[in-house]
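Retro notes, structure queue

What went well: the backlog is down to a handful. What didn't: a couple of records were mislabeled last round, so from now on we paste the full input next to the output in the thread. Example, using UTP--glucose-1-phosphate uridylyltransferase from Protaetiibacter intestinalis:
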Amino acid sequence: MASPIPITKAVIPVAGLGTRFLPATKAMPKEMLPVVDKPAIQYVVEEAVDAGLTDVLMVTGRNKNALENHFDRAGELEAVLTSKGDDEKLRKVDYSTHLADVHYVRQGDPKGLGHAVLRSKMHVGREPFAVLLGDDIIDSRDPLLSRMLEVQTALNTTVVALLEVDPAQTHLYGIATVEGTDQEDVVRITGLVEKPSPGTSPSNYAVIGRYVLRPEIFEILERTPPGKGGEIQLTDALQELATGPVWGGGVHGVVFRGRRYDTGDRLDYLKAIVQLASDRDDLGPEFRPWLKSFADSLGGGGDEGWQGGEDG
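Corresponding output:
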């Protein structure tokens, strides 16, 4: 049996318009919205790098130049900070510049997530690769991608991240039909459906924005017709892999029980900022007492949890 091919490449689709955050996203990509003091996209790239993936391809669209600028040199700013001797801020600016080897390709026509992944074919080649959706932030204290890479290497399979959601929310996600394995956090996926109608969901295992894909996915996407919403759905291609011939390796899921923030949803975006700021050593000691006092002043209400959102 041939040794597994080391996975080094991550694909991040970032061509969406971010209409739920208008007017803030009229001239700025939604991925550049700050989560405390870093843009959301930086958290995603950092996650890839922490898992050992240093070759990052962003599938972009129009008006996304700010993304490229963020991961590029900022000569004038660096010169000003150097002249002021502000080494701490200079380090922060320099960090994103050298975080990863970042490449860019335009998606062109907005034909859905499956089409965005297909646009990475020339860059990825015939290797397994990871896909990270720019809207999802996985808390760095609850590693997910590294576990998915372990499972992919061990089983030579396609792996998706799954999250158990409220059954009332299943119509917002791609939903998996699963079978258990001998590992508590790993299931075999036998079927997938994109945003099932209320009351028809086969389970409450929702696919969230992390995938480790075998290169066969490109061949399937090339012949996948438009599905839900008139777009080429990655879920439809994964359904074929899950139920198709053995050479495709099948599809497995890693069940994630950690903290995940959907920064494409306004409410979850606000929750992410509050929770991450509260946990910061430099902000938390002052922020938490103020937050508690503010919450007490509101009275009533309850904690609806940190997961979920308007759209999966």
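Agreed that this is the format going forward. Reviewer comment attached to the example: Residues 9-298 form a domain with the Spore Coat Polysaccharide Biosynthesis Protein SpsA; Chain A fold (CATH 3.90.550.10).
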